[in-house]
Amino acid sequence: MIKATKSDYAAKFRNVSLILLTCLILQFGMVSTAQAANQDKTDTYRLLELFGDVFERVRNDYVEKISDEELIEAAIEGMLGHLDPHSNFLNKKKFKDMKVQTRGEFGGLGIEVTMDRDSGLIKVVSPIDDTPAFRAGLKAGDLISHLDGKPIRGLSLSQAVERMRGRINTDLKLTIRRVSQKPFDVTITRARIRIQSVRSRTEGKIGYVRITSFNEQSTKGLKKAVVKLKKEIGDEIKGYVLDLRNNPGGLLDQAVSVTDVFLNQGEIVSTRGRHEESAQRFQSTKGDLTDGLPLVVLINGGSASASEIVAGALQDHRRAIILGTGSFGKGSVQTIIPLGQSGAIKMTTQRYYTPSGRSIQAKGIDPDIHVQQAKVEIIDRPRRRSEASLRNSLKNENDSKKKEESKEQEDKESQKPEDTEKDDKSTKKPATKSKSVQDYQLARALDLLRGLSLFQQTKAGTTN
């Protein structure tokens, strides 16, 4: 039999003490957590009671009678509008208009807007192509201070948008503040806006595709455009320009599927919310519809949201060269949550990140090549002196061969008097010169693609 020593009893006492102390701490922690939860509930009930008191006071004592529905909707708008510029309440009418808009047709001026928190005015994200606002000359970054002479400051974003909408063929006067200019008025006639999401054309041996917004028709329209350009240009196609300038964004799934058209593999975008389990990753599928040909993406300050998802993914995968100016910087995702017969709420629930983990929020996409939009004019100058203009300069030995060939050609043409008459008429027409390049950024993109094509041909020739 082994006897317990004094030190053994002391050790046992310390162990029991530690266990009791741990139990007390855990119990105290549980009590504290429960008390905190109860305190939160008490605070919430107290604040809801405050809201009820204010609601009743306004309902009974305001100078004019206001319906309960108006008061509740205004309260919800205020709550959501306080969160960020993109969260808001959609009543039944606005919810219906929103669903129509994502299908590519709606009524209004044709501008995507947001609230400028610094000034309290409405900021133009971008005008939509071929709409009244676009034809009136509104630009990304313009601030709208008045509607029909009435100030906007003090209105919520949804209230301002509601006032900009109205019956087709009715006029609305907007007061515009533009950088480095005095405020000016512009009158725009409301119209039914039918958005053709995708447009395309050939630029020599280069395919040009413009996406004006991301609605339900975008991916389908892009695929049709690429097939059409391949057929028109043929095997000599050198590359593509994807124009996302002044594209305010739209549907997330369309941004993902549009990007997938140009990628063979890899992540396109990831979204992360408040809760870890809400995180999502969107992957591309195999099959680059453009066969890996060089791609230049055009962006500017009016390129927002879904446009930035596309540009960011193609930039991170080094699939495209991004050219233009910095994008808008909207790196958040809004979720539409229906509320039965009462409408819906549009609430920011996630931030999105490019494949490399970049957050675009308030920063935007930085182009690989910065090119400001500009107007280029050809300057007519007196011809400078060259080697050929110097006295007694040596002649090029190939000139005599060219003269002989041209003389033979003239002899052949002289045998056809009807052709000679046409030639004489054509020589009387003065040659016309293009005095300006209308789209400087697009011109630089086309030059870049032509240069890449020449480089690849030279490289292939050297390898062979």
Describe the structure.
Strands 3, 4, 5, 6, 7 and 8 form a six-stranded antiparallel beta sheet that branches. Strands 10-11-12-15-16-19 form a six-stranded mixed beta sheet, with helices on both faces. A hairpin with a 6-residue loop joins β13 and β14 (about 280-285). It starts with 5 loop residues before the first helix and ends with a helix. Mean pLDDT is about 85; it is low at about 10-15 and about 415-435. It contains eleven helices and 21 strands. Among the domains are: about 105-195, Pdz3 Domain (Roll); about 200-370, Alpha-Beta Complex (2-enoyl-CoA Hydratase, Chain A, domain 1). By secondary structure, the protein is of the alpha+beta class. It is about 40% helix and about 20% strand.
The main pleated sheet reads as:
6 strands, antiparallel
SS-derived structural category: alpha+beta
The count of strands amounts to 21
For this structure, the quaternary state is: single chain
Q: What percent of the residues sit in helical stretches (DSSP H or I)?
A: 25-40%
Assign the CATH topology of the domain at 198-370. Answer: 2-enoyl-CoA Hydratase, Chain A, domain 1
CATH architecture annotation of the domain at 198-370 = Alpha-Beta Complex
Per the principal axes of the C-alpha atoms, what is the gross shape? elongated
CATH class of the domain at 198-370: Alpha Beta
**Ends apart, CA distance between termini:** 95 Å
